[in-house]
Specification:
The protein is of the alpha+beta class and 395 residues long. Helices cover 23% and strands 37% of the residues. The N terminus and C terminus are likely disordered. The structure holds adenosine-5'-triphosphate (ATP).
């Protein structure tokens, strides 16, 4: 169903609209008035720590769980009271939930048989979806002889063969090894783009969310911390939690000392640091509140080694406390003079010249590479829903 805002520009109603959904179990809040939309054909990833309410939300969407309050709409129509099998969405689990005694074909066609379709229609639909998920040659194999990745493809094919408008996926790749996981991520993205249907995808895995999704929802304790494009969430975390959960960020607590044009100076325990607010944010009226307590966020990859004889802003002396080799990079753990911990990515893990534990080094970061999280002043006309008193001010 579509409405129009102007006669010649149709607006498609979102595939899903979640309005103030709340759910408690035995008095414990699992979802605290969660609201967001899944736009038409969008790949939306929901990310957050264990127990933050991701699965509960997906189960409510699928109709397997009932919300205590709130409203669910799909393409403008209420779906709260619609039973599971009549919703236009299918759910794929991390443990596949296949029928072990059936072969691949029989697993995939299960939902079609329930619909009592003609055999030739069923065969055509199964053949088409098997081709799409690259399972054609395995149709007569028992599912018990398949690899983890192949089993997950069967589960996905079984969900897609009934042509839902929305696919809900609960950690679908978590049982797979690292290489297969990366391969299946791109397979899922390809499938979603080919079909053009919305995917709502739960994952613990940040790189999985960022590499596949159009938008990412960051959840914490039954609430939404931030929704945005992967790049936006990565570069500009809006809350302290999002800054800690996403990326490899350093967080320094401080207080706004002054604001001069787009440059904000912040007094932290380790010294006075400068943040350059980007023009685009200033244009939208973002201003840090004077004297406000804020958190300065600096990505570990933006902390750089200082070259002798060069004066840099945001320069500090640090002691290396630990050096961690992760395979592709070296993470150096530093301690500043006031005891603040800082991480940096060493420039070249193979150079062999990375200063070891106990070394004293000078490091710096650019004012353009910092983000501020904390109270801000917005013109009253720019009250952004959902941001409350905390919003990113720079980055
Ligand atoms: P994970 O990533 O570990 O799967 P999650 O973010 O999906 O976690 P949920 O499974 O939605 O989290 O759980 C949210 C909260 O609700 C948790 O505290 C959990 O213990 C609780 N919970 C979920 N289902 C039930 C249930 N059926 N009965 C009681 N408590 C529940």
């Amino acid at each position: 169903m579509a409405t129009t805002d102007t006669p010649d520009r149709p607006v498609e109603l979102p595939d899903i609209e979640i309005r103030a959904i709340a759910k408690s179990f035995n008095g414990m809040t699992a979802l605290d008035e969660v609201s967001f939309t899944v736009e038409r054909g969008e790949f939306l990833a929901i990310m957050g720590p264990s127990g933050c309410g991701k699965t509960t939300l997906l189960r409510i969407l699928a109709g397997l769980e009932t919300a205590d309050s709130g409203t669910l709409l799909s393409r403008g129509k209420r779906i709260d009271q619609i039973p599971v099998h009549r919703r236009n969405m299918r759910l794929v689990w991390q443990n596949y939930a296949l029928f072990p005694h059936l072969n691949v074909r029989n697993n995939i066609e299960f939902g079609l048989k329930l619909q009592k379709l003609e055999r030739r229609v069923i065969d055509a639909k199964v053949a088409a979806i098997a081709e799409m998920v690259r399972l054609t040659e395995f149709l007569d194999h028992r599912v018990t002889v398949l690899s983890g990745g192949q089993r997950q493809r069967v589960a996905i094919a079984r969900a897609l063969v009934t042509e839902p408008d929305i696919l809900l996926l609960d950690e679908p790749l978590s049982a797979l090894d690292a290489n297969l996981r990366v391969h299946m991520q791109s397979e899922l993205k390809r499938l979603q783009q080919t079909l053009g249907i919305a995917f709502v995808y739960i994952t613990h895995n940040q790189s999985e969310a960022f590499s596949t999704a159009d938008r990412v929802v960051v959840m914490n304790r039954g609430r939404i911390e931030q929704i945005g494009a992967p790049r936006e969430i990565y570069l500009w975390p809006r809350t302290r939690f999002a800054a800690e959960f996403v990326g490899s960020n350093n967080l320094l607590e401080g207080r706004i000392a002054s604001v001069d044009g787009n440059v904000v100076s912040v007094d932290c325990g380790a010294g006075r640091f400068f943040v350059a607010l980007p023009d685009e944010r200033l244009a939208h009226g973002y201003r840090p509140a004077p004297k406000a307590t804020v958190t300065l966020v600096i990505q570990a990859s933006k902390v750089r080694g200082h070259a002798t004889g060069v004066a840099n802003e945001n320069q500090v002396t640090a002691v290396v406390t630990d050096t961690e080799f992760t395979g592709s990079q070296i993470v150096q753990h530093l301690r500043l003079e006031d005891g603040t911990a800082l991480r940096m990515i060493a420039p070249d893990p193979f150079s062999g010249s990375t200063p070891g534990p106990g070394s004293t080094i000078d490091v710096y970061w650019s004012p353009e590479d910092c983000v501020l999280v904390g109270p801000r002043i917005l013109p009253s006309s720019q009250n952004i829903p959902g941001t409350k008193s905390y919003v990113r001010m720079g980055g």
